[in-house]
UniProtKB/TrEMBL annotation, chain A:
Top-level taxonomy: Bacteria, Bacillati, Actinomycetota, Actinomycetes, Propionibacteriales
SMART domains assigned to the protein according to its UniProt record, in alphabetical order: AAA
Pfam families (UniProt xref): ABC_tran
GO terms of molecular function: ATP binding; ATP hydrolysis activity
All residue ranges annotated as the ABC transporter domain in the record: 6-229
Protein name, as recorded: ABC transporter ATP-binding protein
Xref: InterPro entries: AAA+_ATPase (IPR003593), ABC_transporter-like_ATP-bd (IPR003439), ABC_transporter-like_CS (IPR017871), P-loop_NTPase (IPR027417)
Keywords in alphabetical order: ATP-binding, Nucleotide-binding
Keyword Nucleotide-binding carried by entry: yes
UniProtKB/TrEMBL annotation, chain B:
Main subcellular location of this protein, as a coarse class: membrane
Any GO CC annotation of this UniProt entry: ATP-binding cassette (ABC) transporter complex
Keywords: Antibiotic resistance, Cell membrane, Membrane, Transmembrane, Transmembrane helix, Transport
Gene Ontology MF terms in the entry: ABC-type transporter activity
InterPro entries: ABC-2_transporter_component (IPR051449), ABC2_TM (IPR013525), ABC2_TM_bact-type (IPR047817), ABC_2_transport (IPR000412)
Name by which UniProt lists this protein: Transport permease protein
Length: 237, 244
């Protein structure tokens, strides 16, 4: 059992009559950035929701830091960024962060450092409704970082961001992992794969590969992750 | 439950309301305008028209307004993902519910204070009993409206659906609360129905305060508070940490 990471064992989730996750077994270790890649609709968000403990599970187990996912003791140790930015549109950036900071019980100084982390310091007093889509998802990301979580679950956090900022954010994710956190990031853009320490490829609710990017390329003989994915899918068919 | 989190929720809801000028106007100015309209309607008629109806209206307004505002606000919280995020944080359901109840209770107190002030100073409403009791009833009413609004927001997918609960849940109560026909004079069955509707007790309590120097409102008030608590418990059941 993983004391400082996430262990998912034989996890099956049925949503609205469809089997969305089918017998998924997976580990997300601390100190690494684990990428979850797969086409839209393959079950990435659902898998992340089970890790955070907000998804009803049909069978199997999800264990975080040795405890069942969703248990009360874990709630202050996990940072979660949902796919759609979940912040208050009618509050300013700073008001959003200050609210979540007092819910988490972290000092107000964290608000400033998290704003700097996502490069939004100069937008602190702007109402969220008047931000661009990318800026809004950065506010959502800043909220997830407030509590200095040991597990960070990020559902497609870099969608719609410009390349420079995307690079910055990936550096931030690695810095958090270097500090000992388990970072779990999903994406449907295959070219982000090389930025991960480990890759989990998913298709139609199943894990089809789980390895380092270079090992994946070596085993499939492909030039990039996208072709490796296609090779694996072709091999499975 | 945690006081820090509860007050953080209340404070945040109040900041959101303050930023929304139009809703704020609806909450604060509209009740005064409606009381004035009611008074104006009866100015050319003999008899106690305004004084007879004003207490019931002072009970209805906070209930209706808070029902609407809360059902839409909490529906937004459910659909925007902020509720999911909060429930994944160390926040108790009680903190969330009580935070909302405190915020809307504060707004209701301000709202009723203004409506009562306008009614008594400018519109010649006679309040025989203590005015503060009138406000306590109004705040209880508002919390009741909030609690019900929060509960029904679980059964709506869109804001449009949420506001449709208003006529369904509120208009029958307005008809049966004693405003149009005294509750004692209703047909037996309808009288029985009005006995289990919370707004009837709110109107009874308001009438008692305006009509008597030493009003006995404790019974009515406990019924309103009981309904509000029951609605809050039902509301808590609709806040699920884990969803399908
Ligand atoms: N609330 C829901 N109820 C029922 N089915 C859902 C719900 N949300 C998503 N699904 C279904 O679950 C599958 C996986 O969705 P999701 O986990 O969001 O995939 P991804 O994040 O990889 O795009 C999809 O087929 C989707 O239609
Ligand atoms: Mg998704």
């Amino acid at each position: 059992m993983m004391k400082n990471g996430v262990a998912i064992d034989a996890l099956t989730v049925v949503r609205g009559g469809n089997t969305v996750l089918d017998d998924v077994t997976l580990e997300i270790p601390a100190g690494q950035v684990t990428g979850l890649l797969g086409p839209s609709g393959c079950g990435k968000s659902t898998l992340m929701r089970t890790v955070v403990g907000v998804q009803r599970i049909t069978s199997g187990t999800v264990t975080v830091f040795g405890e069942a996912a969703g248990s009360a003791a874990l709630r202050s140790r996990i940072g979660y960024v949902t796919q759609a930015p979940s912040v208050y549109d009618d509050l300013t950036v700073a008001e959003n962060l200050e609210f979540f900071a007092s819910v988490l019980g972290v000092p107000k100084a964290r608000v400033d450092s998290c704003l700097a982390l996502v490069d939004l310091t100069s937008y602190a007093d702007r109402v969220v409704a008047r931000l661009s889509g990318g800026q809004r998802s950065r506010v959502s990301l800043a909220v997830a970082l407030l509590g200095e979580p040991q597990l960070i679950v990020l559902d497609e956090p870099t969608v719609g961001l410009d390349p420079v900022l995307r690079q910055d954010l990936w550096q931030t994710f690695h810095r958090l992992a270097d500090d000992g956190a388990a970072v779990f990031v999903s994406s449907h853009v295959m070219d982000e794969a090389n930025r991960c320490d480990r890759l989990v490829l998913m298709r139609e609710g199943r894990v089809i590969a789980d390895d380092t990017p270079s090992a994946l390329l070596a085993s499939t003989g492909a030039d990039d992750i996208e072709s490796a994915f296609l090779d694996l899918v072709g091999g499975a068919a | 439950m945690n006081a820090r989190i509860t007050f953080a929720v209340a404070r945040r809801v109040l900041i959101q309301l303050r930023r929304d000028r139009r809703t704020l106007a609806m909450l604060i100015v509209l009740p005064c305008v409606i009381m004035t309209l009611l008074w104006w309607m009866f100015t050319d008629r003999p008899g106690p028209g305004f004084s007879a109806l004003a207490p019931a209206l002072l009970a209805l307004i906070p209930f209706i307004v808070m029902f609407l505002v809360t059902s839409v606000t909490t529906l937004r919280e459910r659909t925007s993902g902020t509720l999911e995020r909060l429930l994944a944080m160390p926040m108790g359901k009680g903190d969330f519910l009580l935070g909302y109840a405190i915020a809307f209770g504060v707004v209701a107190a301000i709202q009723s204070a203004l409506a009562v002030a306008v009614s008594t100073w400018f519109l010649d409403l006679n309040v025989a009993g203590p005015v503060w009791v009138l406000m306590v009833v109004a705040v209880a009413d508002a919390v009741l409206g909030s609690a019900l609004g929060l509960f029904v927001s679980a059964f709506a997918q869109t804001e449009f659906q949420a506001v449709q609960f208003m006529p369904a849940l509120v208009i029958p109560q307005i008809l049966l609360c004693g405003l149009f026909v005294h509750r004692d004079e209703l047909p037996g069955f309808l009288h029985g129905v009005s006995d289990v509707l919370p707004l009837s007790y709110a109107v009874d309590a308001m009438n008692a305060v305006t009509g008597s120097t030493d009003p006995a409102v404790l019974g009515d008030l406990s019924v309103i508070v009981g309904f509000a608590l029951a609605a809050l418990v039902l509301g808590a059941l609709t806040l699920r940490r884990r969803t399908a």
